[in-house]
Design a protein that fits this description.
Strand order of the largest sheet: 7-6-17-18-19-16-20
Radius of gyration: 23 Å
Shape: globular
Number of strands: 26
Bound molecules: flavin-adenine dinucleotide, iron/sulfur cluster
Structural class: alpha+beta
Helix content: 25-40%
Length: 559
Amino acid sequence: MALAATQTPPREAMEFDVVVVGAGPAGLAAAIRLKQLAAAGGRELSVVVLEKGSEVGAHILSGAVIDPIGLNALIPDWRGKGAPIETPVSDDRFYFLGPAGRLRIPNLLMPPLMRNHGNYIVSLGNVCRWLGEEATALGVEIYPGFAAAEVLYDDRGAVIGVATGDMGIGRDGAPTERFSRGMELKGKYIIVAEGARGSLAKVLTAKFGLREGREPQKFGLGLKELWEVAPRQHRPGLVQHTLGWPLDDRTGGGSFLYHYGANLVSVGFVVHLNYANPYLSPYQEFQRFKTHPLICDTFAGGRRIGYGARALTEGGLQSIPRLAFPGGVLVGCAAGFMNVPRIKGSHNAMLSGIAAAEAAYEAIAAGRAHDRLEAYAAAVTAGAIARDLRRVRNAKPMLSKFGTMLGTALSGVDMWANTLLPGIGFGYTLKHGKPDHATLSSASQARPISYPRADGSLTFDRLTNVAFSATNHEEDQPLHLKVRDLALQKQSEHDVYAGPSSRYCPAGVYEWLEEGGKLRFQINAQNCVHCKTCDIKDPNQNIDWVVPEGGGGPNYSGM
Ligand SMILES: Cc1cc2nc3c(=O)[nH]c(=O)nc-3n(C[C@H](O)[C@H](O)[C@H](O)COP(=O)(O)OP(=O)(O)OC[C@H]3O[C@@H](n4cnc5c(N)ncnc54)[C@H](O)[C@@H]3O)c2cc1C
Ligand code: SF4
């Protein structure tokens, strides 16, 4: 039974100058820069950051090799301030893999923008924890465990704040003894920093038509394990990327493997979500990748200590939506600033947070509120973010159009042209074509794939791995994975596409179960690691990911 509106107590409201949604690199950079500007200008400025994870960093999953350009701009003396950034890249390798062999691409052939010297291998989650401490020290209020569930508008339709979700609503929609009403957090401007496929960003994009005239956003699913390897296998500073096996040439994606810290190795695999075969399992492709002769030795005698998954944006320059709407802006991967060939987005996330903060500060100082921060959009278009993305704008469309081998070669030539003729290149910008949910073939036209069984030491089954994400949700709450039309799910997702959700979900949330001769769509929502793939890849856009109770989800440590 749903809670009747008349029974619902009113929400308490708190007023701030700026409300930031999401404590990732983009949101924390915005909050820090706002406070820096206020201190320099001798003004009082209140800034709040909402984070759905149980703590800052709990939902951050990244590679990560970071380009320090963003951090240098935000906190130039980060070394002296004890940032957890300790392993410089010392060896940078790129391979094409075949089933048993490999071909190393000489570093000299790589466009300079692809080189990693000068970058650092980190846990982005730990960098965010540290940024959170820096922000708090500057007076930013950070509320972990509070998910922004709803956008608040004024009479003219401008955004004036967000509301956190009610806590203690049972599975049946009725309040339990844990019930407490959500809070309204109002601000002159709202900075939406939810990362790839943000749930509020999705609502705002539709409401304000932010994608009109833009190419569709493209996505990949990134899966990652964190390993503690045997000391003899550890090569601190080694960064290795691969393309090719186990994916076929028409399926985009590749791997990363980073050695850092105390015998730590981040190993991960990205599958582009415009894949066609509904029988493909990104999770199983990742497990298979680890068995390649080039890779498997790294893990002999080691142990996997973490697992997780997260979508990343791949559309680049031509997919950037309109960035400003009345009362707020999109920053970081919520806007899609990821550089795909470099597999890097954290630098642009920070740069965009800084640019949004500067525009918001100026507007507030001029007595403005709830209007469009067009100065932010202009700063992105004229600045380092657009320059970074312009040079690689044709890489993803070339991979989609020509396959991995030819697409990589052509995009290499294109990136060289953009390097040698800055700002011009070959002059064209390719389109992406269909959105990722529209790229699946029907099951009748696809080849089933059989994957090897997990061995339990190098490869693991999905649910065993999910335990290493420390995911936890309050069980007695409404499902946060909303299927709009269950009949359509059966007629199309199951009958036409053979249930790809049971394979693309990296946490085994979706199952088609047969009970008494009838099929049932089972949703094990408590396992969800908040990667957002279902919201992106469901062929009918029939699944909406909304925030669960704050604090639920993965509890990543060092990811
Ligand atoms: C597998 C993988 C490998 C990657 N490797 C690299 C790399 O090597 N180098 C690199 O630079 N980049 C890498 N990236 C990209 C990089 O992680 C992102 O570009 C960066 O994290 C984006 O920062 P962000 O702040 O925009 O979003 P995020 O880092 O996603 O942070 C968003 C935050 O907002 C919170 N949030 C979301 N919605 C809500 C809500 N409604 N209410 C409250 N809180 C909310 C989330 O819990 C999260 O903490 C990688 C990404 C993946 C997935
Ligand atoms: S249910 Fe959706 S968001 Fe959650 S882990 Fe599975 S695919 Fe990702």
